[in-house]
Specification:
Elements lengths: L2 E18 L4 E14 L4 E8 L8 H12 L11 H9 L5 H19 L3 H4 L5 E3 L2 E3 L4 H15 L3 E5 L4 H15 L4 E5 L6 H13 L2 E5 L8 H10 L3 E3 L6 H8 L5 E4 L1 H4 L1 H12 L4 E4 L6 H7 L27 E2 L2 E3 L12 H6 L3
């Protein structure tokens, strides 16, 4: 099943309101859609998120990398052969998003060829428990949003974006806890905001406030400092920014890691699948981490199984989609489609309408 043609499409989708990330403010999201078409006519698709401070690419740089460097590596390969595709992509340094898009598109192509949903090929469950990410705002506004989304969608876990200062983060946790009650689990992602010297106190304070997991409380590395932090802080540290690859995960395993965020939108399904298999053997926790995916990207990323509730619910913030199927969230869960051919889910007219 060799590559016959490929195409790359860019679109911008508006948000319901302005979103404040740790390193950006925006009222819309820019996305890339890769389509790989095999000689037998079957196609695979994958979505990437384009943000300067996340993916480090622009539409022009991604298109150039794809055309000049990444797609040529697929020449003559059987795209059904994951090992061959992964080995070819590994020859190229950097270009994380481009290679991840190719890897994920190859996986959706394999599902179409097998005539089976990808979650079945990955031996995952059809239903995925999901959580809502409460982004940075004033504590009262974060609490109101948390209560609203838990009531409407039945979320039992909330990821709270921290990094607004210790007192503000604690105030947000207190307000959210008062709004949603004790039955909803909370964890905090500070996006590496606090110095390493303050990480232990920070994690202990948010744990006292009810957080059950701390994601990237400070800049982390698989070293003695992280090992001491994880040993002393009392709750799992969920690794994200510094743990993108299998090699990263292996280094953290040696330092007593307890939880890893898997991000198919950042590195592709092959890499996250390899990480998940490795850490599952050590009974570590894993989450499918948010990458601000649209509904289409959500349906692809959710194929990756994990032990914690998946963070793929940001599509609720979008006022437009390029997917014919928008997931429904009931009781905090999403039922994955039985459709094996992801290309059929793409609304190509919407891709044109929102072209960037």
């Amino acid at each position: 099943m060799k590559l016959a043609s490929w195409s790359l499409h860019f679109y911008r989708l508006p948000y319901e309101r302005e979103v404040v990330w740790a390193n950006a403010r925006e009222d819309s999201g820019l996305y890339a859609l890769l389509q790989l078409v095999a000689e037998n006519g079957l196609a695979g698709v994958a979505e990437g998120t384009i943000k300067n401070t996340w993916s480090g690419v622009s539409p022009r740089s991604l298109a150039a990398a794809m055309q000049d460097l990444v797609v040529p590596l697929l020449k003559g390969l059987d795209l059904r052969d994951e090992a061959a595709v992964s080995a070819a992509l590994a020859r190229l340094p950097e270009n994380r998003l481009a290679k991840g898009l190719v890897a994920s598109a190859c996986w959706t192509l394999r599902a179409a060829a097998a005539g089976r949903p990808l979650w079945q090929l990955f031996e995952g469950a059809r239903e995925a428990e999901v959580c809502w990410t409460v982004t940075r705002r004033k504590p009262a506004e974060m609490a109101a949003e948390a209560e609203d989304y838990c009531r409407r969608y039945g979320f039992r876990t909330l990821k709270v974006k921290g990094g607004q200062g210790l007192e503000t983060d604690l105030a947000a946790l207190a307000a959210i806890r008062a709004a949603v009650g004790l039955q909803v689990q909370l964890y905090v992602d500070a996006n590496s905001h606090y110095p390493r010297s303050e990480a232990l106190e920070y994690v202990q304070r948010i744990a006292e406030a009810g957080a059950t997991v701390a994601e990237d409380p400070s800049p982390l590395a698989p070293d003695a400092g992280f090992e001491a932090l994880q040993r002393a802080c009392g709750i799992p540290i969920l690794l994200d920014a510094s743990c993108s690859t299998l090699r990263d995960a292996e280094l953290y395993l040696e330092r007593g890691a307890r939880a890893v965020s898997l991000k198919p939108g950042r590195v592709g399904l092959s890499e996250t699948r390899a990480i998940q298999k490795r850490i599952a053997a050590h009974e570590l926790q894993s989450a499918v981490g948010i990458y601000a995916e649209s509904a289409l990207g959500t349906l692809v990323s959710l194929q990756q199984p994990a032990s914690m509730p998946a963070e793929q619910t940001f599509f609720l913030m979008l006022r437009a989609q390029v997917s014919k199927l928008v997931p429904e969230i009931r009781g905090g869960r999403i039922a994955l489609p039985e459709e094996a051919d992801f290309e059929r889910l793409v609304d190509w007219e919407a891709v044109k309408r929102y072209k960037a």
